[in-house]
Amino acid sequence: MKRQKRDRLERAQSQGYKAGLNGRSVEQCPYQQMEVRSYWMGGWREAREDKNLGLYK
């Protein structure tokens, strides 16, 4: 059970990261559940920081 939950949260963070790199808005988060949404937003923030630091073009 814990592995499945972790996988779901890791996937949400990964999708958020990809969305942040592609320039999508944070309002386009597809998740409604607060825990999963926070992981997505964390990935999104991380990607925006990496892009601002010049790690990605």
UniProtKB/TrEMBL annotation:
Keyword Cytoplasm appears in the UniProt entry: yes
Gene Ontology CC: one annotated term: cytoplasm
Pfam families tied to this protein: RMF
GO annotation, biological process: regulation of translation
Subcellular location: Cytoplasm
Highest taxon, organism lineage: Bacteria
Protein family per UniProt: Belongs to the ribosome modulation factor family.
Role: During stationary phase, converts 70S ribosomes to an inactive dimeric form (100S ribosomes).
NCBIfam families named in the record: PRK14563.1, Rmf_CrpP_fam
UniProt-recorded name of the protein: Ribosome modulation factor
UniProt organism field: Vibrio aerogenes CECT 7868
Gene name in the database record: rmf
